[in-house]
Amino acid sequence: MKKNFWKRLGKRVGVIALAAGAAFMLAACSNSSSSGKDVKITILQGKVENNKQFKQIAKEYEKSHPNVKIEVTSIGGGTQYDPVLKTRISSGNAPTIFSLAGPADVKQFKAHEADLSDTKAAKAAQPGTLDAVKNDQGKAVGLPFNVEGYGFVYNKKVFEKAGIDPESLTTVDKLTAAVKQLDAQKDQLGIKGVFALPGKEAWIMSDHLLNLYVAQDYNGNAQKLYKSKTMAFSKNADMKTMLDLQKDYSIKPVMQMDYSAQVNQYFSQGKTAMIQQGDWIYPTVEGIDKNFAKNDIGMIPIPVPGEEGKLPVGTSLYWAVNSQKSTAEQKAAKNFLDWLYTSKAGKKDVVDTLHFVPAYKGYDNYKMKDPLTSVVFKYSQSHETTGWAFPGYTGTSWDPDVAQPNLQKYLSGKQSWDKTVQNMTDGWAKQQKSANN
Amino acid sequence: MKNKSLSFWLFLTPTLVALALVVFIPVLEGLFYSFTNWDGLTFTKVVGFQNYITLFQDKAFINAFWFTVGFVIVTVIMLNVIGLGLALLVTQKFKGNNFLRTVFFMPNMIGGLILGFIWQFIFTQGFQALGNAMHLSWLQNWLTDETTGFWGLVIVTVWQMSGYIMIIYIAYLQNIPNEIIEAAKIDGATAWQRFTKITFPMIAPAFTVCMFLTLSNGFKIYDQNLSLTNGGPYNSTQMLAMDIVNTAYNSGNFALSEAKAIIFFIIVAAISLLQVAYNRKREEDL
């Protein structure tokens, strides 16, 4: 026993020293910040493609507002953002400003959403843009990043060669006739198909296409759809016509095509006349062929009976301010957002640095930088738009579990359209019954 | 292990703490959450076995289960047959057998995600072009339905893992004493007899190990599934691991996902342990 005593003591001392060292390091870590009245705001946002630009804007803001420090973190792709935000919140490291994708997020993070209805930006927001992010008390808890729009993005040269004016394709009949004409001249025009429909990317159908035929029943209001017990889907026959048209005249096989095949491989290299996409594809097309992107592409609305000539324009992400942070921090966060969307310098950044189509009033003298956002800006300024109702279901399990597999089944020819519609509306009713909202 | 002195526990503590922090506590926490309506952030009530009832009525989960079972059966058989075949081949004495070992093992060095993308290209572009050129319809439209998705996954997994299984078999094959084989030869045993009566029984332990590896790997596969088919089309090639991940992160149903993960854990553990117990017994009998 005694022999070992000193040995053991030695070990014990070692362990104690280690423990003490660890404790010291922990203490040192937690004691790093807090000096004076400087405010630090942290931003966690979901538009990862604009990460660089947001960081640049934050730096600029720090320069003109020396007592504010801004730290920007961007997390990509709608599906990975929520878990990260949840982790940050539950680990006590919640951001001051975060992004919300729609009504489902508003409900999920309601304990952390500050009322933003008194901010300058909220007052300047265009009518309808705040509808999707109002909380139970009817207060706006989100501010739109921007508005985006989608339709048929077309290749000007192909249409010129065929002698068709794409802007004249305002009805389903006119579009169908043009598609048939283009298809007949496929070889002369050098295209492999009139459309490129990516059957692998179910969201292109379940979010964007489906929205056109569901939104009208809910006035384009995502919140209304999110709270609706049933999904009317009264225009489903029109959706079938449009989906069939795209499928029948698409480059095949449809079910092997993904987003990058559609945009990079086919559209950007002139292998197709048009694709169903939105203004967000511009940077990708530009990355492949700058001249083509700049001069040879345009966008027209997808003709929907009763809504011809209107472009579906909406918001995919909103800013929210964390209500559980200190008042000073919340105030700084609101000031930053107001500055970004309503000050002169901020507006310039929104349009020129971020290439955002503004969701706010007071941008009359601004010009968008590329042809696709210009189209969206034009429609949004002249209010020739329809709303985005699909954020009302994209955050729910109905979208990946019901809508997407059923639409893919129809596209693969494994299921009739009637059954597809039936499954989708039944699935919605089932989900809403259990969701008690 | 009588002397459980202070230093014994002190040396054990770091490991125990680490294990508790990253394994035991999360598992227990997950088990608890599976009985609540947890959404990844908070839960408002304990719902008892509701999630377990839901998951057995969940068509997607049942589909994923049978798809995975089919996949496991096919890959276990193919991997062991091909792995053993390759091992027998490269343990023969001929020039270049070392080179072949390297080549067969190589696919295992590439990560599953990358492999999936490479093979996706082969299936959708290579097969398509070949099918078009030779008018073979079975080479066209790969990964666009459940059948081709299933065989695509099988091919990638077998191609990747058979080299690894081969290495294990090689190790055991080389341990068989030459004298026994020679004695059998002198006694007039044919090559087939030598294989079934001597080689095969002698490598029974390798069989146990490989069965365990291929079984549990087959059940848990995720990365190839993600990059090759991503569960599509219409979620028909979604395997158990992917269904669990998607239930949590796509559908936001964290509690249900936890329940699925618990069931998944029980299934994999039960099957693997049963298999090991059975094969161990067989080893002794031989």
TrEMBL record, chain A:
InterPro entries per UniProt: Bact_solute-bd_prot1, SBP, SBP_1_CS
Signal peptide (from-to): 1-27
Xref: Gene3D superfamilies: Periplasmic binding protein-like II
Keyword Signal: yes
A Pfam family this chain is assigned to: SBP_bac_1
PROSITE patterns to which the protein is assigned, alphabetical: PROKAR_LIPOPROTEIN (PS51257), SBP_BACTERIAL_1 (PS01037)
Keyword entries, A-Z: Signal, Transport
Keyword Signal: yes
Name assigned to this protein: ABC transporter substrate-binding protein
Originating species: Companilactobacillus huachuanensis
TrEMBL record, chain B:
Annotated TM spans: 7-28, 64-89, 110-130, 150-172, 198-219, 261-278
Keywords carried by this UniProt record: Cell membrane, Membrane, Transmembrane, Transmembrane helix, Transport
Membrane topology: Multi-pass membrane protein
KW tRNA processing (keyword) present: no
Protein name: Carbohydrate ABC transporter permease
Entries under Pfam families matching the protein: BPD_transp_1 (PF00528)
Protein family membership: Belongs to the binding-protein-dependent transport system permease family.
Residues annotated as domain ABC transmembrane type-1: 65-275
Highest rank taxon of the organism: Bacteria
